[in-house]
Structure formats: C-alpha cells, structure tokens
Amino acid sequence: MNSSSLRSPSLRSSSRSSPGVARRSLLAALGAGGAGAVLAACGGPGGGADDEPDAAPEPGGDASGTVNFYHWRSEDKAVLEELAAAFAEQSGVTVEQTIDPSEQYQSTAAQKARGGDIGDALTAFRGTQLDQFAQLGLFTDLGEASYVGSYEENLITPGQHEGAQLGLPYQLVFNMPLLNTELAEQAGVSEVPGDWDAYLDLMDKLKGIGVTPIAWPGNDPANAFQIINSLAMNLGPDEEMFAKIETGENKATDDWWVQALTRFQELSTFFQDNFSGSGVDGVLSLFSQGEAAILPTGSYQIGQVREAGGEFPLEFAPVMTNAAGEEPAFEGIFNSTYILGINSAAQNPEGAAAWIEFLSDPVNAAVYGDGTSQHVTVQGVEYENPDLQALSPWISRNTLLAPRFQFIDLDIRSAIENSLVAVATGSTPEQAAEEAQKLVEEQL
Prior knowledge:
This protein has about 450 residues and is of the alpha/beta class.
C-alpha cells in the first residue's frame, strides 16, 4: 500500500456553506477580561475602550512612501519580501517588515505599536490579543473597506469585536497533530483513528516499530498546548467550554475536563524522553527526520517540516477521544488567525490599506499560501503547493473553531494548560484539576 492511501475515516462531513464551517460557533473576542480589563483604562491612539474605532482609509491615490508591516511569523519573511517587491512595482509603495518572536509579540506588540513608529499594518492573534488591541483602540474598523468582500465571510468572524471588523484573519490554520503517514503504514495502520481505542492502537503499533509515537514540545507553551484543541473538542459540554471556565459556569473539576486529563495522561506515555524539557525545535527535528510519527502542533509548521528535510506525506491525526461506535461531535479543529489590521496611529495608513488590499487578492494570497504551506481565508484561491492540495478536504469537514483561544485571561489559560503537564509528570487527573480550579478561582 502506498503512502497516499492512508486516509481519514468517513465521519460527518459538510460543505463550506452549510453544516460544517457555517454551523460552527465562530467565537470572536469575548469582551473585557484579564489583561484586557486593565488595559481598558488606558487611552489608545484611536480612543478609549468606549469609543467607536476609527474607520480604515480606502486604499488608493494617496498611497506612497514606506509601509511598516509588523508581525510574528519569521518563517514568512521570504515570501512576504517576494510579495512586497511585486507590490512596490505595482503601487510605488515600499514595505519593510518588523518581526518579533511569537511570545514576545503577544506580550509587547500593543505597547510597541501604539506610537505608530512601527506597524502601519500589523497582525493580531485571535482572542486575547485582538481583545487587547480593541481595548486600546489600536485597530481601525475595516468594515466598510471594499477588500473585505474578497474573504470567506464565515471565516473572518474572529476578526470582529463588538460588531466592528477590526481585522481580517488571513490564515486558515488546522491546529491538529500532523501524522507521518509512511510510518503509520509501516506500523500497519491505513486509516487515521476515529475513536480513542483506535488512537491508542496506533500509538502501540508506532511504538512497536521503534519510533516515538508523539514528539511533544512540553517546554514550549505556545506549541505544547495546541493539542488541547482536539483533546477537548468531543469532551466539552458545548462549543464555548473554555470561555465558560472564565465566567465560572464551567470548572476545571467538572467531569469533562477530568476525563480530558485522564486521556492526556494515557497519551503522555507515548511521548519522547524528557518531553517536559523539550522545545519546539527539538521535536520538529525528531519529526522531520522520521524518528517520531506525530507532531502535535498544527498546519502552521508544515513549511518548517519541509525546510528541515521531511519528505514524507502528511495527514492530520486529531486526538479522537470518543468511544468506539460513538459518533464524534467534531472531526477536527480549525482556526482563523494572523489577523491583518491597520494601526490607528499609522504614519502611512493609506499605504497600509493598499498593502492589505494587495494581500487580499486571490492571486497574491495563493503566492502567500503556496510559499508558507498555509491555507488562507481569501475566496477563490487555487493552490499549487502539494501539501495544501492534499489537506484541502479538511476545509469542508465538520471542524470546531479552536477552543484554546477562547481564553482572554492568560492566567486562567495557563492554569488549565498546566494541568496537562501535571498529569503527564505524575499528578492524578483529580489532583491536577483541583489545583487548576484553585488558580482559576483566584482570578475570578
């Protein structure tokens, strides 16, 4: 059997425009909370938290000079330079990039961009950071911009805040484990597991051929806890499972989260040695060299796998926690992120608007997608990248908007996420859940 024959199980599927993407609860930022509530007291360049955001300028005649594009994806630098060169030739506007590592960007981007010296155009993570930008008045309102119509309407909802389209999520990410299908087939598995027993069977068989079943970056929170998305998707009481932990409606000690921790503890027995001290570069190397079968992060690392020499075919292998014979509520996870916006303090707002309009063109969006191995939310894009073509069926499957990013309060998010580390390193699920809930209650 060749590697291309490994496929996902035939679960519920749907078209993009009806059940599936359209029926998902596309949660936007969830209002003031955590750091956002504190920042709301600070006036921003576009006004305070109670003010209407400024309207974004239309791209056009006044666009000139240099646009600073501020973001966190260093792996996109080359393809963005290619696009910037074409944009400069077309518009006469030069684009320069300012790039910070993702964790630094999450913690300092708002403060660095507020003066307008950097980030005429800039990006935001879905959830906490978009909420922070909204509280500071940092993003303008793109709602009336003509290029908004270039996007799939039901995929840009995470860029909205209190009715305003503050940004345009550019990337359609699948935050699910990546599976080396060659290793799976060597282990005698030809279908991606569709239930918990089948998942554990895959782990046993991968271990039996002498590879690490899952390389988990336990010392890199940004990547380590992507696994929480598919782990929880079929266990949570509803689609707003983590948002309701922040409101107190759900608790970490509820049965569904204790069960999630129990499942994760079982799964952790298949991680590499010293997983709690492993960073993302180390596990990326293990996976790319064929020494580990699953990289439990997401599609955003496909390009890095290829750059690191991984030549094997890929498929998603979400953690399916449902019992055998039980139809899961969801087949997998998606996320709309890398939210493009215009700084309300931009020194060149017209140029920034022209740059975003340029990126919103399907031809240019295809260049970005192919060059980064990343699906985009722009309509009508035709991919040439083999990985994007192979994984495109997931666009129309019944997937849930990544629940991990429902958290606004980062302390609460850390409490829940760190309960995974606790069970993987020796605590019982009940102990880990109780400790997490104590920390949650301190923030409520």
